[in-house]
Amino acid sequence: MEIDSDPREAIVRVMGLLYRRGLINIMGGNASIIDRDRGLVYISPSAVPKNLLEPGDIAVIDMDGNVVEGKPSSEYRLHLEVYRRIDSAEAVLHAHLPHAVLAGDLGLNLDPERYIESKYTVGKCVAIVERLPSGTKELAEATAQALHESGCKVAILLGHGAVAYSDKTIYNALDALEGLEFLSYIEYMKSLYHR
Ligand SMILES: [Zn+2]
Fold first, then answer.
1. Which of the residues 27, 161, 164, 192 could staple to 154 if both were Cys, CB 3.0 to 4.6 A apart?
2. Which domains, from first to last, does the chain contain?
3. Which residues pair with 93 in a beta bridge?
4. How far does residue 56's CA lie from ligand 1's centre (Å)?
């Protein structure tokens, strides 16, 4: 079985899963898949409730951020910057993971290798990005740089959420975000007993 060869359908499904799992609010988060041969990025739209997304809503932009089709997410710069700096990135996912935001604020030590669930999903490490306004070039650059320099595949954006990229499918990026939320939850619960 080929998993969602149509990038528009894959983005719709992944955004729906994030919403139903409570990892984003109705208008939050964004997802993209790159077509490097054509230099185009498929990206979730702004201002469409995530439970109502349809393949026809997915926007298309070029690597300079020019709109080819639709109305891209306001966080499109972040996606483009990750694709520019990390050649192996095939999909990027951004969600407002509640426990990851909490763990970031508390400065908890997040070592994915401590637990099977996170070891095989998050990878070796979690990058941390300072508080920066959403949708800005500064946030896009800081996030892409943190991922690139650390070699981590996920980053927590302080006070905001998390980003994962995948060098395979968008489902691997979803797996990484779910793993990060799991890890953050466990470390937070543990911290309550070690005060
Ligand atoms: Zn966000």
1. 164
2. 7-192 (3.40.225.10)
3. 31, 164
4. 22
How much is the pLDDT for 61?
98
DSSP 28-76: --EEEEEETTTTEEEEPBSSS-GGG--GGG-EEEETT--EEES-B-TTH
pLDDT at residue 5, as a whole number? 81
Does the pTM surpass 0.90? The reply is: yes
95 CA distance to ligand 1 centroid (A)?
6
Q: How many Å apart are CA 84 and CA 165, to the nearest integer?
A: 12
Å from CA of 134 to ligand 1 middle? 6
Closest to 82 in 3D by CA, of 155, 131, 147: 147
The Å distance, Cα 162 to ligand 1 centre, comes to 8
The answer to whether residues 128 and 154 touch, using CB atoms and an 8 Å cutoff, is no
